[in-house]
Amino acid sequence: MSDAAHIPAPPEGFVLLEPRSEFTGHNGPMFHRPEAEGAEYALFILPRHTNGLGVLHGGMLSAFMDTLLGSAVHRGAGRTGVTVHLSVDFLRMARKGEWLRGEARVTRATRDLAFAEGGAYVGRHLVGRATGVFKLMGTP
Q: pTM value?
């Protein structure tokens, strides 16, 4: 039985997010709050998301934040964005068996670029924050 079978019910208002890529599917499952302003995601931290110390791997937090900010860009700018720059600050450890929840929003959008920021939390504790710049794809 996979470790994904041991995921408790997500936080209230969150539903399973259908992965848009194999990468996101492999790193999930992720949940989202459909009616959120910007984007809100949640991830139950499984053993595969952790490093040798049993805490959330920095690469997993980075991937989570990139996906979260990208979703905020898609919702806020109305177009898909490809990451040009991502900056992640690692502020606190998160452990397996905890829910990681993220919130992100677009701070500015031009014809070709969107700028987003967000934070990841365990409970009320800020675990990480990120800013990103995204190249907007397609026609405006």
A: 0.93
Q: What are the domain boundaries of the chain? A: 14-136
In the chain, where does DSSP find H-type helix? 22-27, 58-77
The fourth-level CATH superfamily of domain 14-136 is Hotdog Thioesterase (3.10.129.10)
Can you read off the two tokens belonging to residue 119?
């934070």
* Per-run averaged pLDDT (10 residues), the chain, 140 residues: 73 91 88 92 96 95 97 94 98 97 97 97 98 90
Compute the CA torsion angle 39, 44, 48, 54 (nearest 10 deg).
110
pLDDT in the model for residue 19: 85
Q: What is the spatial distance between Cα 133 and Cα 83, in angstroms, rounded to a whole number?
A: 6
User: Of the candidates 31, 46, 96, 39, which has an alpha carbon nearest to the alpha carbon of residue 66?
Assistant: 39
Helices (H) and strands (E) in the chain, counts: 2, 7
Strand pairing partners for 31? 16, 42
Residue 139: which residues within 8 A CB-CB, separation 6 or more? none
**Residue 122 backbone phi and psi in degrees, to 5:** -120, 115
